[in-house]
Amino acid sequence: MQLEDIIYNPLLRGILGLCLMGGVFLGAMAVVWFERKLSADIQQRYGPMRTGFHGLLQLVADAIKLFTKEDIIPKNADRLLFVSAPILLMGSVFLMLVAIPFGAIIINGVTYPIAATDMDISVLYIEAVSAISVIGIFMIAYSANNKYSLLGAFRNFARMIGYEVPLGICIVSVAIMAGSLNIIEIAQAQNPLWFIIKQPIGFIVFFIALMADMGRLPFDQNESEEELIAGWITEYTGMRFGLGFFAEYIHLILGSMLIVLLFLGGWNLPAALTSNVILGIILPTAFYLGKVALVILTIIMIRWAVPRYRIDQVVDLSWKRLLPLALLNLGWVIALGLLGV
Asked: Tens digits of per-residue pLDDT, 283-306?
């Protein structure tokens, strides 16, 4: 049996998908713990520093707290929507996970991406299924029969519509430059020059728009606790709250992977470094995940170092700043294409 037959075997692909799913869950747990630790350092909080040796048991304490909290459903809530909404939140991240490569192995100069599937339009598919989480958020807010939850959901719509447009234009710009809508081919097209060098404006717009799309500070208008208690998740308790919270962190990991795949060169390395079989198996994935970790660290540090924008500032930034810049970047990419660069 040829190596290609083994790697592209549907059964092995299914097993790989399950392994990647487990890896993302473990990664999300690690990111939650790391963010608690980093925020404690930045804001001098004591809890995440003293629960166990250097705060190692903080995540265990958080899990015990969520599992033991009372599961409350508001009296006038729509029970079916209220209970089933987390399925859409988690379903969105699972559907994204299917098409995102988690690295690659290089054997004899041939690259084999570590992904559950390889789609021709994977970048559009990822963009489309990521929007399913908005439906889950609205189901939570509407079914809870709480005005703060509903206001949080409407803020979420305003933010999502405003930032999806420049985000989509940046993705189209990258696809035009790579000549493909396949995210694996887009990553491979950045060998040796990353798209952040060819499209610096596009990278800045995409990074800001993606942070807003993920609802990270300073763009977490839909759950700003000072104004809306906790926004769309106000009435959720216990593990239902935990699932919504956890889905945000998985989105953070997958979003950081998108940044690396679209603008930071993915797993590409000079051929001299991957000519050895062992190095070819280890180095590309390690290089790729190292860059993803740096992006996650940057996003977390921004969250704990800047104040929250008001909703009018969030809307102005998307429509009056990012959208014109995204269109300028698209024009730049088309001009480069016409010049054959």
From this structure: 889 999 999 999 988 888 887 777
In three-state secondary structure terms, 105 is strand
Task: Give the whole-angstrom CA distance, residue 85 versus residue 133.
Answer: 9
Bond before 192 cis per omega within 30 degrees: yes
| Whole-Å CA distances, 172 to 101, 165, 201, 213 | 19, 11, 14, 17
Instruction: Encode 229-274 in three state secondary structure.
Output: CCHHHCCCCHHHHHHHHHHHHHHHHHHHHHHHHHHCCCCCCCHHHH
Q: Phi/psi of residue 113, each to 5°?
A: -65, 145
Cα radius of gyration (the chain): 21
Residue 257 burial class via C-beta count within 10 angstroms: exposed 0-12, middle 13-18, buried 19 and up: buried
- As a residue count, the chain comes to 341
Which residues touch 324 (CB under 8 Å, ≥6 apart)?
A: none
Structural contact between residues 183 and 272, judged by C-beta atoms closer than 8 angstroms: no
- Give the Cα separation of 240 and 90 in Å (integer): 11
Strands 104-107 and 110-113: antiparallel
**CB atoms < 10 A from the CB of 4, how many?**
10
User: What's this model's pTM, rounded to 2 decimal places?
Assistant: 0.86
Instruction: Return the sign of the alpha-carbon dihedral for residues 87, 91, 94, 100.
Output: negative
